[in-house]
Each structure stands twice: as structure tokens, then as C-alpha cells.
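dumping this here so i dont lose it
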């Protein structure tokens, strides 16, 4: 491949980390200890589940946000402020609706202080390259999603960035438009028609990563860190049905579904300030899925030959981001077993699908009590109170030692959903009170 002839690093990340101070004074670590180099001539895909810090990492490389630890080196010099070699294409296009296509594309050049003549000349050239010819004077609202994203590409490329960063650039587009734009971009890159040395694409799509990238960096959560850095040596254009392609996708699937942490369920961010839980202590993080989805997965697995997660996702037309949380939740509850990217019903899962609704509730109840720390903690707190009522604030206070406020809220909502299904407790939304129904407490107390 032509672009890969010359390989040298121009951006390096050294022990890079990012943390945020929470309103309660805790510091939540989002990304930790990232070390890698970006080479000239590569398309790099940054792949990982939502919340693994992909956008955060990209923004630090672009200099939009400063690191909390470590550094970004640009030609061996520590980056301070915006990275002059980077331009970004955003998922939601980020166009100014009151500016025409030409004016939007000119923006980056204007910010760089280019004179009006050269600005217009460069913008028009890029508009032409990117297939927007004839739309120079149109406003974003007159354009389709695909055309708007072309404006996003043209604006980023007009400044001739050394590194083109793209944050899920195709995910707001319909499937066909996305596919078309993906290949057009690849054409431009392979034919060296765009003035960029490397491309960094943030994605949660495994196939997208393996289709486009020369190298896939897989990020894991808890906190964000590099789990794998895989070279993709297949020549372009890649045949998605070829055994080599499928094997690579499979390999990435295995990495994503086999967390290398001792506690495989744990995805929570760690805390680094006082009062500080022991360093080794990470709070189990709940994937945000409903029990109904878990039940749906278990039923699908019954009597099924296909155990491979990737092929299962393909069959169900599910993206990895949709399937993985359901798989994770089922695994946490000990309803499925996963080995090397293959999934199968565990004994408890078998029992679940052969049970009636009340028995199913009892199975989930037992499972939550055995395996789900947040549910265990809520139950303990409820038991400790005479009236068996607690305020959700109490639970949120505990969770905010480990999660951002927003994530703490989501964790609580998931625990409410699961616990209510299992009839362990109830939740009064307006007052934010969690309580045990009297009939439950009475029967327990009389035992
Ligand atoms: P991804 O792109 O992989 O989905 P992000 O980089 O967007 O992940 O976010 C990683 C984590 O950092 C998320 O849990 C998110 O809530 C948190 N986060 C991102 N920005 C901030 C911020 N400004 N303050 C607090 N937490 C943040």
C-alpha cells in the first residue's frame, strides 16, 4: 500500500492519563497510562466500548483538553494547547447553520490566519475533492446527512492536517450513506488525494475498524487503557467475507469480550483522591440493559449451534455496542459462560429459560444476591433500616466514590430495574426512596 512506505512517528503518547474532579471532591480516572506512537502513513482505529475514553484520548491528542498526567509529544516536543497538526471531523458534523458550505469549509483556514484569496482557493479545491462541487453556496439545512458530513471532511482537510482525527464520523449516517462515504474516504487516502499523513478514527464498530485501519488500538474501561494494538496487514480493498477478515474481526471480538481484569465484570473508573478506597478496589460496574434483553439473549441461545459471538451479532444484525452489554449482564449474573469469544448457556441460564415467570424472578433474585455488589449493598442498607426505606441519595453518595455523577445515576437506575424485576425492593421515583414492600418484609420477619 502506497501510504505505508515511509513509517516514522510524529505523535507519541507517554504515560498519558486523564481524570476529572467530581462535585464530591473525588477524582475519577478516565484514562490511565497510555503509551503509543502514531506513525506516518497509517490509518489507526481507536476501538472500544462506550465510555472507554476514546473521545477523551482523541481530544488530548488534538490538544482540545489537557492531560492530567503524562504528555502528548508532537515531533518530540510536549504539546501545550492545540495541536497544530490536527483537524477533527465530528460525529454530529458540527457545522454552523448560518454559514454556507464554502464559509464553513473556510473556517479552519481563517483560524489559521490564511489570507482571503488562498483561503477561498484551498476551500474550493477541497470542496471539489470531497464531492461537494456545486453546493458551495448551500446552507447545511439544505443538505442531506451524508453531504453535511462531506462538509465536515472538507473543513478538516482544507487545513491540510498531518493527522485527521475522526470521532465516529459515520455513525450519525444511514447504513448505505456511511458505507459510501467510508469507501470514498479510503479512495482519497489510497490515491493520496488528501493532504494528510495519518488518520485516527474513533469507532465502536469492529468491522469498520478492520475495514479501514492499518492498525487497531483496542481500549478497555476501568479506566481506559490500551488492551491491544493490532496491525491489520490485509491489502485494501478488504473483502469482509474473506476468512482472513473474519478471523481478525473474531480476534477483536475475543479481546472485547474477555476483559483481562481480575474482576471481569468491573468497568468502573478508579478513584485517586481522599477519602480513597484501597487501590485494588474497583466497584463492579453494571451494563445498562434490561432483564428483558437478558432473557431475550438466553432464549436465542437455546438449542443454537452458533456459539461464536461475532457471528451471533451478525445474525441478529446487532452492533457490538448493542450486544456486548447484554452479554456482559448475562455473564455477571452467571447465566452464560464465555470462552474465547464463544458464548453458551450456563446451568442457571438453562434453568431460566425452562422456568415460568415467578421461577425466573427467583432465579434472577438469587443471582443478584450472589453476584451483584450494588444490589447486595442496597439490600443490606434496607435491612439495616427499621422502616426498610432508604433515600437514593445514600446510594448515589457511595457510587460517586467510583463513578462520575452521570454514571452513578445510570448505575442506580439499572440496579433499580434489576432489583424491581427480582422483587427485592421497590422504588418510588418522585421521592427517590428505595424500599422493601411490606408483604416481603413481613414474610421475612416471620421466618
Ligand atoms: P468514549 O468516547 O469511549 O465513549 P469518552 O471519552 O466520551 O468515552 O468518555 C469516557 C468517560 O469519561 C465517560 O465515563 C464520561 O462520562 C467521562 N467524561 C468525559 N468527559 C468528562 C468530563 N468533562 N467530566 C467528567 N467526566 C467526563
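and the seq i came up w/
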Amino acid at each position: 500500500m502506497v501510504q505505508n512506505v515511509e513509517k516514522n512517528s510524529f505523535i507519541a503518547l507517554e504515560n498519558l492519563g486523564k481524570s476529572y474532579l467530581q462535585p464530591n471532591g473525588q477524582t475519577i480516572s478516565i484514562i490511565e497510562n497510555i503509551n503509543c506512537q502514531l506513525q506516518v502513513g497509517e490509518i489507526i482505529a481507536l476501538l472500544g466500548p462506550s465510555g472507554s475514553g476514546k473521545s477523551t484520548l482523541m481530544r488530548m491528542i488534538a490538544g482540545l483538553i489537557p492531560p492530567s498526567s503524562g504528555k502528548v509529544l508532537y515531533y518530540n516536543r510536549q504539546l501545550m494547547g492545540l495541536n497544530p497538526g490536527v483537524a477533527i471531523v465530528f460525529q454530529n458534523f458540527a457545522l454552523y447553520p448560518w454559514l454556507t458550505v464554502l464559509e464553513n469549509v473556510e473556517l479552519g483556514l481563517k483560524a489559521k490566519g490564511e489570507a482571503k484569496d488562498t483561503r477561498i482557493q484551498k476551500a474550493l479545491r477541497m470542496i471539489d475533492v470531497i464531492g461537494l462541487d456545486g453546493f458551495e453556496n448551500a446552507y447545511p439545512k439544505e443538505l442531506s446527512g451524508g453531504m453535511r458530513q462531506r462538509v465536515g471532511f472538507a473543513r478538516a482537510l482544507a487545513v491540510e492536517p498531518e493527522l485527521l482525527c475522526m470521532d465516529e464520523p459515520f455513525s450519525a449516517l444511514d447504513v448505505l450513506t456511511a458505507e459510501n462515504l467510508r469507501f470514498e474516504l479510503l479512495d482519497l487516502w489510497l490515491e493520496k488525494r488528501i493532504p494528510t499523513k495519518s488518520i485516527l478514527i474513533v469507532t465502536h464498530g469492529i468491522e469498520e475498524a478492520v475495514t479501514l485501519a492499518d492498525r487497531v488500538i483496542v481500549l478497555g474501561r476501568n479506566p481506559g487503557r490500551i488492551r491491544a494494538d493490532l496491525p491489520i496487514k490485509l491489502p485494501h480493498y478488504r473483502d469482509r467475507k474473506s476468512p482472513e477478515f473474519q478471523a481478525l474481526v473474531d480476534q477483536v471480538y475475543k479481546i472485547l469480550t474477555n476483559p483481562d481484569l481480575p474482576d471481569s465484570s468491573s468497568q468502573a473508573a478508579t478513584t485517586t483522591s481522599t477519602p480513597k478506597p484501597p487501590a485494588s478496589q474497583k466497584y463492579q460496574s453494571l451494563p445498562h440493559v434490561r432483564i428483558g434483553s437478558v432473557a431475550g439473549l438466553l432464549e436465542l441461545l437455546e438449542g443454537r449451534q452458533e456459539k461464536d459471538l461475532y457471528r451471533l451479532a451478525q445474525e441478529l444484525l446487532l452492533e457490538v455496542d448493542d450486544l456486548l452489554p447484554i452479554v456482559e449482564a448475562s455473564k455477571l449474573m452467571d447465566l452464560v459462560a464465555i470462552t474465547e469469544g464463544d458464548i453458551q448457556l450456563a446451568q442457571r441460564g438453562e434453568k431460566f429459560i425452562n422456568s415460568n415467570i415467578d421461577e425466573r424472578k427467583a432465579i434472577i433474585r438469587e443471582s443478584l444476591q450472589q453476584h451483584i455488589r450494588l444490589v447486595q449493598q442496597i439490600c443490606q442498607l434496607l435491612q439495616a433500616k427499621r422502616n426498610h426505606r432508604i433515600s437514593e441519595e445514600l446510594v448515589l453518595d457511595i457510587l460517586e466514590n467510583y463513578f462520575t455523577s452521570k454514571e452513578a445515576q445510570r448505575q442506580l437506575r439499572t440496579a433499580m430495574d434489576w432489583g424491581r424485576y427480582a422483587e427485592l425492593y421497590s422504588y418510588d421515583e418522585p421521592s427517590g426512596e428505595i424500599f422493601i414492600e411490606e408483604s416481603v418484609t413481613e414474610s421475612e420477619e416471620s421466618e
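Confidence is low (pLDDT under 50) at residues 1-6, 260-281.
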